[in-house]
């Protein structure tokens, strides 16, 4: 059965608004990062945090579970996309709940896979003892960074809201304010890993025969959702302002490595020109429990090492077939 999966993705994104974290008044700007090229020269370009990518994997899971995979449980917070998890509703108000790890795992697939942090101040007469517990995420993301050697562009655009009325009453002009947003284009890459073996795992039972808090069938459904959420990311379902600026996404390369026996090395990032060869060089050879799948334009691949697929869907179907 599938135990660990890594993804190395290279994609073109035109006119995207993926990380508008710099906001000042009516101006929203895209985050710019400093980093080094392959010659050690400093460059600046738009980049997207791993937190943003992880959030959209979470959103993908949430939408899949609320749709086709509806029998999978979600807590009250994850069901509606609230960030403070695990959540419950008391007196018509959403609040963070404190329960044993086993209960939280069984009651919410997103809390299980994406983790949670509970840090609550003490209440009542016991002023010295609060609650602090956490579950580490089973899904991991790098930043989405520009591929070295390619240009990136960004441009700030002026938008305005237009009243549907013929006139605007005095004092309401601010409701028709002009605002500025930035959009960027480029060829980007990111890497990600999914620790499949730890989905459903109750940490205190690690090493025991009954280490999982949920049944096998439910674990498999959760793994399928976690894998399928990557497909949504590859389709462009990431970033802010999807209502009016879905990225013009064009996937270029996808390298997926999976193991049926344990953890794998993280892939070398596709921002580097030799990422493919270096990633292959990291993977243990002659291990029948490890498979390397590739979709893209590379030719002359060693068929004994790398399996080239004709479509991205073929990769996802093989992954789900190993669950």
Structural description of this entry:
This is DevR family CRISPR-associated autoregulator. It comes from candidate division WOR-3 bacterium. One of its GO terms (biological process) is defense response to virus. InterPro entries: CRISPR-assoc_Cas7/Cst2/DevR, CRISPR-Cas7/Cst2/DevR. Helix content is 22%, strand content 30%. Strand 4 and strand 5 (42-46) form a beta hairpin. It has 323 residues and is an alpha+beta fold. The protein has one domain. Helix 1 (50-66) crosses helix 5 (216-234) and helix 5 (216-234) packs antiparallel against helix 7. The strands form four sheets. Strands 1, 2, 3, 10, 11, 12, 13, 14, 15 and 16 form a ten-stranded mixed β-sheet that branches. It is built from seven helices and 16 strands.
Give a summary of the structure in a few sentences:
The protein is of the alpha+beta class.
Structural class given helices, strands, pairing?
A: alpha+beta
Total discrete domains: 1
Write the element-wise H/E pattern from the N-terminal end onward: EEEEEHHEEHHEEEEEEHEHEEH
Low-confidence runs: none
Number of helices: 7
Write down the overall mean pLDDT.
Answer: 87
Helix percent reads 10-25%
N-to-C CA distance: 5 Å
């Amino acid at each position: 059965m599938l135990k660990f999966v890594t993804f190395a993705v290279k994609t073109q994104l035109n006119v995207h608004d993926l990380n508008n974290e710099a906001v000042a008044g009516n101006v929203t700007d895209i985050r710019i990062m400093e980093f080094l090229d392959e010659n050690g020269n400093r460059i600046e370009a738009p980049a997207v945090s791993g937190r943003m990518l992880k959030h959209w994997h979470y959103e993908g899971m949430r939408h899949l579970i609320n749709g086709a995979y509806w029998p999978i449980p979600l807590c009250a917070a994850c069901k509606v996309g609230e960030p403070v998890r695990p959540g419950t509703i008391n007196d018509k108000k959403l609040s963070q709940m404190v329960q044993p790890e086993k209960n939280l795992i069984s009651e919410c697939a997103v809390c299980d896979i994406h983790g949670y942090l509970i840090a609550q101040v003490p209440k009542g007469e016991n002023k010295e003892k609060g609650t602090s517990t956490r579950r580490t995420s089973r899904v991991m993301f790098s930043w989405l960074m520009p591929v070295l050697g390619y240009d990136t562009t960004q441009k700030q655009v002026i938008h305005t809201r237009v009243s549907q009325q013929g006139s605007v009453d005095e004092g309401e002009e601010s409701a028709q304010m002009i605002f500025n947003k930035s959009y960027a284009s480029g060829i980007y890459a990111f890497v990600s890993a999914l620790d499949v073996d730890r989905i459903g795992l109750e940490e205190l039972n690690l090493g025991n025969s009954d280490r999982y808090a949920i049944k096998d069938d439910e674990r498999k459904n959760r793994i399928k959702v976690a894998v399928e959420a990557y497909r949504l990311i590859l389709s462009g379902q990431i970033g802010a302002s999807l209502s009016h600026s879905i990225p013009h996404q064009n996937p270029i390369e996808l390298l997926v490595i999976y193991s049926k026996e344990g953890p794998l090395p993280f892939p070398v990032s596709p921002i580097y020109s030799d990422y493919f060869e270096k990633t292959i060089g990291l993977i243990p050879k002659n291990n029948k429990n490890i498979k390397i799948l590739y979709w893209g334009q590379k030719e002359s691949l060693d068929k004994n090492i790398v399996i080239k697929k004709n479509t991205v869907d073929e990769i996802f179907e093989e992954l789900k077939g190993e669950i």
